Amino acid sequence: MGQEILPFELGYLPEYFVRKAEVELNETPERKVQGLRQIKELAKRDKHTKNIVFDDDFLTQYLRVRKYDVARAFSTLKAYVILRKKNPNLFTNFRFESIVKTVTDRCVTILPYRCQDGCTILFIELDNWDPENFPVEEVRRAFVIYLLQSLREPMSQVNGIKAIIDVKSNPVKHLKHCTPTNLYLIYHGIQECCPMRYKSVHVVNDSLVFKAAWIIIKTFLSEKIKKRIHFHSSPKELLDHFPKAVLPKHYGGDLENYQTLDWLKRVMTPEKLATIGGFQLQET
Asked: Where would I find the CRAL-TRIO domain in this sequence (predicted)?
């Protein structure tokens, strides 16, 4: 760590982060083997998961996010399975030509570099989202892609994610979509089902839409999560929390081109989409 800025796509854990996983997540080779065996045993005994074959890499994400507390890891995994069974449309019909709009329209993207602590950075500019051209259903699918596919990176599993959300918004376009159902589905899917460590959320450019949404969202959040949400009066304040090298230029950083199009193409190949979510149903 220190001065080094690492790329988002790394594919492995550098030695420093191997040690970090041991200190922060209780991960050792022995505990990993034991944890995988125990969580598979729990899955075989539960009615929601007994007919599912999980990839070891996918199960490791849940063990890491719950710091190798196997019971809690399985509870989160089961919540994900139930969510997927209740909402199969979120995990099917992924179309690159649709989801790529999140990048080309500058709505949502993963930034190409990590913070010095190894965190992935999710960048959202709400005002660039046009629900007429990119319906809410496609937004949900896009978040499935961004979260589950970014978690294939071991660095994301160990270090977690930080989000920058520019909530400047046109209330005419967006306010009608701030329903309790939509907001709860986003919260439940992201916080209670996805095996991601959420380190901080940075909100800039407050708006009427966000004020309305926040009234509902904060009722779902734990005090721990609320303390990790930071409100900024100006995008320039992000420089107090992020290295200049990882931020887009119009937010005071150095990045001119921050679109991770190549990554999105790679994770949306048929081969990658076939294994999204890390499990297969067994024949019964």
From this structure: 110-259
- Closest of 166, 195, 249 to residue 73, by C-alpha: 195
Q: Beta strands 120-125 and 229-232: pairing type? A: unpaired
| Region label for 106, one of left (φ > 0), alpha (ψ between -120 and 50) or beta (otherwise) | left
What single string gives the DSSP state of each residue in 113-167?
Answer: B--TT--EEEEEEGGG--TTTS-HHHHHHHHHHHHHHHTTSHHHHHH-EEEEEE-
161-186 pLDDT tens trace:
999 999 988 777 888 888 888 888 98
pLDDT in tens, 114-159: 999 999 999 999 999 999 889 999 999 999 999 999 999 999 999 9
The helix/strand/coil state of 80 is helix
Amino acid of residue 201: V
CB atoms within 10 A of CB 232: 17
- DSSP tag of 104: H
What is the Cα–Cα distance from 149 to 100, expressed in whole angstroms? Answer: 14
Number of H helices, E strands in the chain: 14, 7
Rounded CA separation 227/253 (Å):
25
| Alpha-carbon Rg for the chain in angstroms | 19
Strands 120-125 and 161-166 turn out to be: parallel
